[in-house]
Automatic annotation (TrEMBL), chain B:
It comes from Rufibacter roseus. Pathway: Amino-acid biosynthesis; L-isoleucine biosynthesis; L-isoleucine from 2-oxobutanoate: step 1/4; Amino-acid biosynthesis; L-valine biosynthesis; L-valine from pyruvate: step 1/4. Signal peptide: none annotated. The gene is ilvN. InterPro entries: Acetalactate_synth_ssu, Acetolactate_synth/TF_NikR_C, Acetolactate_synth_ssu_C, ACT-like_dom_sf, ACT_dom, AHAS_ACT, AHAS_small-like_ACT. Keywords: Amino-acid biosynthesis, Branched-chain amino acid biosynthesis, Transferase. This is acetolactate synthase. It catalyses: 2 pyruvate + H(+) = (2S)-2-acetolactate + CO2. Residues 12-86 form the ACT domain. The lineage of its organism: Bacteria, Pseudomonadati, Bacteroidota, Cytophagia, Cytophagales. GO terms for molecular function: acetolactate synthase activity. Pfam families: ACT_AHAS_ss, ALS_ss_C. Belongs to the acetolactate synthase small subunit family. Its EC number is 2.2.1.6. Dimer of large and small chains.
Amino acid sequence: MLMQEKQAPALPETDTMISGSQALLHALVAEGTDTIFGYPGGAIMPIYDALYDFEGDLKHVLVRHEQGGIHAGQGYARSSGKVGVVFATSGPGATNLVTGLADAQIDSTPLVCITGQVFAHLLGTDAFQEADVIGITTPVTKWNYQITDATEIPEVLAKAFHIARSGRPGPVLIDITKNAQLQKFAFKGYTPCEHIRSYRPKPIVRKEYIKQAAELINKAKKPFVLWGQGVMLGSAEQEFKAFLEKTGIPAAWTIMGAGALPSDHPQNVGMLGMHGNYGPNVMTNECDVLIAIGMRFDDRVTGRLDKYAKQAQVIHLDIDPAEIDKNVKTTVPVWGDCKETLPLLTQLVETKKHTDWLAKFREFEQKEIDAVIREELFPTTEEMTMGEVIQQLNEITNGEAIIVTDVGQHQMVACRYAKLNHTRSNITSGGLGTMGFALPAAIGAKFGALDRTVVAVIGDGGVQMTIQELGTIMQSGIDVKILILNNQFLGMVRQWQELFHERRYSFVDITSPDYVTVAKGYGIPGRSVNKREELRAALEQMLSNPGSFLLEVMVTKENNVFPMVPQGCSVSEIRLK
Amino acid sequence: MSEQAIEKQEYNITVYTENQIGLLNRIAMIFSRRKMNILSLNTSPSEVEGIHRFNIVVHETQEVVSKIARQIEKQIEVLKVYFNTNDDVIWQEMALYKVPTQVIAEKAKVERLLRENGARVVAIRSDYTVFETTGHREETDNLIKVLQPYGLIEFVRSARVAIIKDSDGFNRKLREFERMEPGHEVVENEFLNSRDKVFSM
Ligand SMILES: Cc1ncc(C[n+]2csc(CCOP(=O)(O)OP(=O)(O)O)c2C)c(N)n1
Ligand SMILES: [Mg+2]
C-alpha cells in the first residue's frame, strides 16, 4: 500500500483555540515557507512538537550546528530569492546563530530566525540556557523582537517576513518564550503585513534625479557601470541588461553582484576590487561618469577612498538612503528600487556603443591574461593551480552550476574565473568573509534550487570549520558537490604574510584529515587527486555522481592571488604580481 | 563641501519613534559602533500620542551627523530623524544643586549669587537646601563655580531638551506616514531633499 504523505493541518477557522507554536507554523506556511533549517532544544520544544504535524508542508532539515543552520538558510535564500527560515533553541542555540546573522546583515540576505527562549517569568534571572538574545543580536539584525504572549505571534510573524524581504532585505530574529509557544489562544487568522508606518522599504522615485542622471550619461565619453547584489535583490536583471545594452556602457561587478549579467556578455568587463580584474580597477580612475547600481562601495572594492574615482561624476542607484554618500560622494543620487529606476533611466538615455572605450578594457584584459590568467588557468608548472580546477569545472558545467564559495584564496579564484550563465549562481560570504560558510550554504542553496547543480568550492581551512554538516548531507540525502582546493595552508593569510610580513608564516600551516575517509564515514563517496592527468575525470565523476560527492584537489602550496590592490592603496595601484 | 560639513560642533538630533522596547539600545549602538560619545540623551513623549521623541546631543561634523541620522532613520521603528545646530533649536537643561543651609543662612552674598543666577529653591531642610536652575550649559555650569566655594554638596544636570525652531510638529507628518502612499517630504530625509543646496553638479 502506498504511504500517504502526512497532511499538514489546514488554517484554522477564526476563534479556534490553538497554541502559539501552531500559530507560528501556520504563519510560516502562509508566507510560503517550504523548508526550515533547524536544531531543537529545551526552550523550543513546543514548536518542534507542533512541527511534527506539519511535515507535509514544512520540510525540516536537521543540521549539525546552528551556525550550519543559518548559513544553510542564507544559501537557500540566495539561490531561491525567498526568505530563509531557521530554528534554534535558547542560550547556546541562539548564540550559535550570531555569525550567520552578521553575515546575512552585511550581505542583505532575507532570513527569519526563530529562537526559543526561557519562560517569560524567568527572563533576567540567569535561568538555565537563558541568554539576552535580543541584546546580543540587535546590531546584527534588521529587526528583532521578543514575543512573550502567544496572541502576538501572527502579527509579529507577518511583520518579520515583510521586513526581512522588503526594501533592502536582511535578517530578522524572533525570540519566543516557552510560555508563549505553549499558550492557547483564539486564533484570528493570518494577514500578511504590507505596511508599517515607521518603515519605508521603497523610497519614492525622484524623477528629477533620473533626468539628471540620464543627462550625465548621455554626455559621458567614458562612462563605467559598477553593479552589485542589488540588481539581484531587486530582481532587476532584465532591466539592468536592457539599460546596459542600450547605453553600450562597459560594466564590472562586485563579488556580491557576480552572475547578475552572464560572464560572457560582451559588456561584462569583470570583477572589481582587491582581487578583481586589472581593467575595471584601473578604469575606475579613468572614467568620466561612474554609475553604481545596487552596490555599497565596500573598502575591498574602493581601496583608498581619497584616491577613488576622484575625476568622475558619480551616479548612485540604491534602495537604501543610508548608502548614498556613505563612502563615495555622489553627484546624482538615484534613490529607489532599481527595478523601477533602471527602466526610467533606460527610457531617457541615448542608444550608444562606446566601442573604443570598451576596447580599452579589453586591452587591459589582454595584459592581465598575459601576466596572470593564462598561467593560472593553463599552468605550465607541474603542480596544479586553483585556477585550472575552476577552468576545468567551467568546461564541464558550461557555466550552468551554482557555485558556492568559502573564504580565502580559493574564493577569489573561484569568483574571478567561474563561468556564470545565470543569476543567483554565485553564493559567497562577501561582506563578512565568514570561513565555514560554503558547506552549509551549499546545502541550503540546493534546497532552494533543486533543479540546479550546486558545487561548493572550499579551502582546506574553511572546510574544517563546518565539516560537521556532512552529517546534514548524509541524513537529508541532498546532492551537493564538495570541491576542496587543498593548498595545505590558510592560503590567503599566508599570502599576506609572504607579501607584507617578510614571509613570517605565523600559524598558517594547517593539516587536514583524510577527507575521503571522513566523507566515507558519512556515507559520501569521495576522491582525492594530485595529478593533472586525473583532474578532468575526477571532476566528471563528481558531477555525474547521482548524489553528493567530495573531491579533494591537491594544489600548489604557495600560489598567490593576483592582481591585487594592496590594502591602503588606490585601485589604480593594482599589482599584477 | 561647506565649512559646516567638516567642522565639529554640537548637533541636536531629534528622533521620532514608535514606543518599542529595545529601540534605545538599537539607537545607542549606532553611536557606540563608531566610537562616538553621546553628550546628552533624553527620551520623552512627543506632541503626538504614542510617539516617542529622543533628543540626542553630539559634538561632530555635519558630514558624520548626517550619516548617523540616516542610520538611525533606517531602524524599523524610527519614523523620522532631524539634526540641527544649536542655532536652529530652542534648548534647555535643568540642574539641581545641594548646598548646606547654614551657609545660605549666614552669608547674604550667597543669596545674592543665587538670585543673580536665577536659581529657585525646590527643597529646604535644616541641613541642606536644593536649588534648581534651567538654561543653557554655560548658565548651569556657572552656578557650580559660584557655589563651589560655599560647600556645594551635590550637583546633577538633566539631559537636554530641544525644540526645533522650524518645525511645525509631527501631527500632519504622522498622518502621511499612516497612509500607504506617503508624500516626498515624509519619505525622504532632509539631506536628500535639500541636496541641490548642498552639492552642485
Ligand atoms: C571565521 C574566520 N576566521 C578567520 C578568517 C581569516 N581568514 C581569511 S582567509 C583565511 C584562510 C583560509 O584558508 P583556506 O580555507 O585553506 O583557504 P585558502 O585561502 O587556502 O584558499 C583566514 C584564516 C576568516 N575569514 N573567517
Ligand atoms: Mg588552504
